[in-house]
Amino acid sequence: MKNVVTLIETTASGALSNTTAGLLGAAAKIGSPVAVVAVAPGRGAELVEQLGAWGAATVFLAESQSVGQLLVAPDLAALTAAAQALNPVAVVAANSVAGRDAAARFAARTGAGLLADIVDVRREGETIIGTHSVLGGDYTVEATVTAGVAVLTVRQGAIEDKAPAATPAVTTVVLEPLQGPAATILSTKAATALSDRPELRGAARVVAGGRGLGSMENFALVDELADALGAAVGASRAAVDAGYVQQSAQVGQTGVSVSPQLYIALGISGAIQHRAGMQTAKTIVAVNSDADAPIFDVADFGIVGDIFTVVPQLISALEARSGT
Ligand code: FAD
Q1: Cα–Cα distance measured from residue 202 to residue 160, given in angstroms and rounded to the nearest whole number
Q2: 62, 109, 112, 149: least buried by Cβ within 10 Å?
Q3: Which of 31, 133, 21, 139 shows the shortest CA–CA distance to 90?
Q4: Phi-psi bin for 47: left (phi > 0), alpha (psi -120 to 50), beta?
Q5: DSSP label of 251
Q6: pLDDT for residue 191 is more than 70
Q7: Following CA atoms 217, 222, 228, 232 in sequence, which dihedral angle do they give, to the nearest 10 degrees?
């Protein structure tokens, strides 16, 4: 099987990013997953076992003194070195801020075609075909790269296939000191976690609230259901604009795009700009008092009812089931 070079991101503390398993799963659909990680010298060995458990057939550790000191440049240099060494059929990165940046630069430098923000991928013979959810999620289109290496960025959480665990072959290279202009990291500060709920982007379950909640106090109902399900909290822009919840929770065209296993929309009408950010969820549940609300057009399960009646019953049922 042909190599698929997969850019693995690490956190400021050197741990593997939560996009790792999904990326290796996507890579395994089209070839043999190679996990490429830019690491500070001597810091790669601790990552190998977990990368193998998530399906990396090969681990390519690119050691650089610039890791943690320069933005993007170490990832780009690692990708370039891996692509030169392994002659891959494709390059895969997360559609995160860092992944998009590295993938786009790699594509521009090598003249490769870029399929951005794919929600699925497959291979037909030698052709790699990416699936995109476009125009507010109303259309699903397929695209392919006709020449050169296909560079793909994968929407977080969209591809749930898992690669089988492997015992990876490990290659370690030492990158030359990085030349040229690059943004320098002067300091890093961990964002204060506002709660111990999962992060919205990449969460497996999301409970989102809209204007139907009516107030910031009432929005606690969304938090409560999210906690009962171990879910992240999302919101419509109307709920954000009304001050019920912080902007980082906004799902949609001008907010976060999510592809969870379960998306529960509470008091959200389902405007196209909202659907653009959640329509690729695997199962959508909507609770709305208006039977004609457009959210029901995309919902797998719809409840026409008052959220203040339905949601407390749902929470009680979940608590009864878990014995709390
Ligand atoms: P509404 O449309 O007001 O719907 C509220 C719903 O709650 C209604 O369907 C009502 O029936 C229901 N309801 C009320 N009370 C109850 C109750 N007690 N029980 C059950 N149901 C109840 N929106 C986004 O969400 N994300 C975006 O990223 C985004 N980007 C945008 C970008 C642009 C350029 C523009 C123009 C708009 C954008 N919008 C976005 C706004 C979008 O068009 C809608 O205005 C917004 O999504 C509406 O939010 P909502 O569904 O919460 O509110």
Answers
A1: 11
A2: 109
A3: 31
A4: alpha
A5: B
A6: no
A7: -120
d(CA 259, CA 8): 20
In angstroms, the CA 306 to CA 40 distance is 54
Pocket lining: 294 vs ligand 1, CB cutoff 6 Å: no
| Range 79-88 average pLDDT | 97
144/304 Cα distance (integer angstroms): 41
Ligand 1 contact, 257 CB (< 6 A): no
Ordered DSSP codes for 181-197 = ---B-----PPPPS-SS
Give pLDDT, residue 198.
87
Q: Which two tokens stand for residue 301?
A: 């399960």
Residue identifier of the C-alpha nearest atom 44 of ligand 1: 271
- Burial (CB < 10 A; 0-12, 13-18, 19+), residue 308, is middle
| C-alpha span between 124 and 142 (Å, rounded) | 12
Write down the H helix ranges in 219-306.
Answer: 220-229, 237-241, 272-275, 295-298
